[in-house]
Specification:
Keywords: Hydrolase, Metal-binding, Zinc. With about 160 residues, the chain is of the alpha/beta class. The chain is built from four helices and ten strands; from the N terminus they run ββαββαβαβαββββ. Strands 1-4-3-5-6-7 form a six-stranded mixed beta sheet.
Length: about 160
Amino acid sequence: MYKEKKRGWHIPKEVLKEQFNPSEFPRETYLLCKIQWGDNGTPWIHWVKNYDDDHHAEVCFLEDVFLMKSNNVNCKITLYLSWSPCADCSCSILDFLKQHSNVTIGIYVARLYRVNSEENRKGLRRLDRSPQVDLRVMEMGGKCFVGLGKGELVDFVHG
């Protein structure tokens, strides 16, 4: 069994499979991120999970993990989420982007969170309308994710 962690560089394969399999319904949310500053350099990867119902993974990433290097360099963030953002997290992401016009975010979600909530649907629509956001739902094809680029999630796996 894997040691319980809240963030790190690599994620155990078992956790990745459970968290990002859309036929599973885990209680927690995992966020895998890849940050690219400018066009050159090595992307930085990291992951976080929600601490509890009041500390969502998206807010933990924006407040605790992401550190703005410069407003003069474009930054591309790619987020892989086991659940789509709730209404409050959608607002937090959009507020963050208003403060950082040099940042764009690609968001890939494995499953939709409380899709029957009108507020959550409004939040996702607002994210989708933002020119700084590319919002997509992941698709499973066989045993690998389709549409994420060759080996994207492999960067996060350990063990």
